[in-house]
């Protein structure tokens, strides 16, 4: 091959590689993220400090271009998911991000409730309004409301739950109007919306939104969680352990670096999450000594069993501990001896 032909071929290949970075495929790629210490982002007023640390674990996810897709095909602990399995039908990037951040907020509320309940501390709930998850394009709310808005009044009425809002709207018929007051970020806005029947449910009318409850847990002592832009519900268990450790005397960590994952509900039950093997890799790279994994009540295909496979594969010294409930993790930690 002549020098000129070689240079031209190299240039074409370089251009193709450059272009591949900007051509997105209908897939997402996930890979191991990080293990992040929780004490710097969770603060209980007057709380105790720990010698070791509790850590949440994350998975990095992004839209697949040609390069990242091919790389994931040949890489260990990178996974490829069809777009439809990640985002809802017609869900925009903004709506997806709002949904993930709302799941995180709900997870934090559950974690606070569980920790304060087990520590015997005071807490109560404050209802903030109807949380808008997404807006249907062909319905009246389109162009007025958007994902992340909080509806705080309808026809000068306030509600204690999204179900009360739904029940009120159900008393209306197509063509009726409602006056709403809603909050977008920190700004209150007003709008009048004409109700419309749903195409697939002609006997049911609405604004055309998917919704949930927006609540805040009020506590004594005060607790704050600065989760920044981390989304999803998978840090619930680790949040609850960090909060409980600051609330109570002594140090549950006993000097160990303790990572883990799992959703948590209001009763303290731990649920499974995605990307457990990638989180094992992330925790091991961060030097974790212990990793809590959802046991799913002994399911042979549980997160815990998947974690064991990954732990063996990467030859980690990290101890993998199965948990079904907040109290399982608590009991395990109370048996630990000080790290030498």
TrEMBL record:
Gene3D superfamilies given in the database record: 3.30.230.10
Annotated SMART domains: PDZ (SM00228)
Enzyme's top EC category: hydrolase
Entry's EC annotation: 3.4.21.53
Active site residues according to the UniProt entry: 234, 279
GO molecular function terms attached to this record: ATP binding; ATP-dependent peptidase activity; serine-type endopeptidase activity
GO BP terms in the entry: protein catabolic process; proteolysis
InterPro entries on file: Lon_proteolytic, Lon_Prtase, PDZ, PDZ_sf, Ribosomal_Su5_D2-typ_SF, Ribsml_uS5_D2-typ_fold_subgr
Reaction(s) catalysed by this chain's protein: Hydrolysis of proteins in presence of ATP
Domain of life: Bacteria
Domain Lon proteolytic as annotated: residue spans: 226-336
Family membership: Belongs to the peptidase S16 family.
Record's protein name: endopeptidase La
Organism: Peribacillus asahii
């Amino acid at each position: 091959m002549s020098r000129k032909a070689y240079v031209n071929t190299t240039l074409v290949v370089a251009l193709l590689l450059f272009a591949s970075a900007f051509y997105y495929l209908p897939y997402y790629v996930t890979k191991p993220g990080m293990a992040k210490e929780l004490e710097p982002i969770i603060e209980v007023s007057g709380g105790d400090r720990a010698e070791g640390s509790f850590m949440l674990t994350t998975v990095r996810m992004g839209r697949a271009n040609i390069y990242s897709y091919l790389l994931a095909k040949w890489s260990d602990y990178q996974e490829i998911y069809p777009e439809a399995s990640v985002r809802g039908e017609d869900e925009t990037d903004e709506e997806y991000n709002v949904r993930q951040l709302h799941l995180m907020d709900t997870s934090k509320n559950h974690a606070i409730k569980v920790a304060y309940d087990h520590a015997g501390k005071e807490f109560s709930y404050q209802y903030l309004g109807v949380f808008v998850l997404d807006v249907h394009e062909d319905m009246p709310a389109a162009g007025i409301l958007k994902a992340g808005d909080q509806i705080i009044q309808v026809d000068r009425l306030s509600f204690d739950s999204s179900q009360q809002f739904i029940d009120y709207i159900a008393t209306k018929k197509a063509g009726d109007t409602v006056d709403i007051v809603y909050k977008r970020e920190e700004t209150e806005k007003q709008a009048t919306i004409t109700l419309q029947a749903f195409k697939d449910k002609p006997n049911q009318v609405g604004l055309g939104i998917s919704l949930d409850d927006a609540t805040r847990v009020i506590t004594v002592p005060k607790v704050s969680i600065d989760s920044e832009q981390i989304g999803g519900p998978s840090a619930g268990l680790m949040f609850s352990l960090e909060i409980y450790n600051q609330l109570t005397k002594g140090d549950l960590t006993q000097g160990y670096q303790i990572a883990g994952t799992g959703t948590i509900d209001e009763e303290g039950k731990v649920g499974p999450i995605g990307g457990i093997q990638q989180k094992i890799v992330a925790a091991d790279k961060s030097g974790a000594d212990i990793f809590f994994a959802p046991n799913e009540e002994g399911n042979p295909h549980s997160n815990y069993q998947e974690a064991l496979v990954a732990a063996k594969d990467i030859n980690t010294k990290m101890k993998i501990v199965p948990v079904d409930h907040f109290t399982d993790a608590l009991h395990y930690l109370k048996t630990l001896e000080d790290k030498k």
